[in-house]
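Methods — Computational structure assignment.
A single polypeptide chain was analysed. Its primary sequence is given first, followed by the predicted tertiary structure written as structure tokens.
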Amino acid sequence: MQGDLSNKRKSYTKSELLEASISDNPMELFQKWYYEVELADGLEEPNAMTVATIGLDGYPKSRVVLLKKYTYEGFIFYTNYNSEKGKAIQANPNLCLSFFWHHLERQIIIKGKAEKIAANLSDGYFESRPEGSKLGAIVSNQSEVIPSREALLGDLQKLELEYENKEILRPAYWGGYLVRPISIEFWQGRANRLHDRIRFSLLEDFNWKIERLAP
């Protein structure tokens, strides 16, 4: 079996990324691009991002999660700390986040270090979740082998009875990570594959070095 994709290509012509039109702080440019992608039609869940970690087996692994908050400090997402992802971050907090917004012909690649956010912040977000999502976080031993989906749903039914008319508190093994960026690259597709690539690299005192990269 094979598939030849060599003739699949398109021309990128929708926008440009020039030094004269960007802020000195990459988080401000991220906010601008995120607002623009939310306003544009053609993409559900623009906060979907790829998180790449180095696993305990030495191999990189990428998966898509949802960005839940961004600030000048960095990017926040939530997960099970005992998951494969959580164990990888515990062993090596260096990771990469990436966004690809195809309908605007843009991507962002972020290198950074992950750290757990304060417990009260994770509590606050967990409290805002629907009850089904709260119970889902509790019942799932994320990344562990399970016998069947039926077994998982059976455990969920038991939890639903256990927590009926009770407050559902955040389990200690579930919470948020803040990824503090050290490098953020903005990629804008351009014609003839001469794409715009602008990289911000963190210096001391929260200043950023701005460089243009060859496409």
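Note: The helical segments are 26-39, 84-91, 119-128, 131-139, 149-162.
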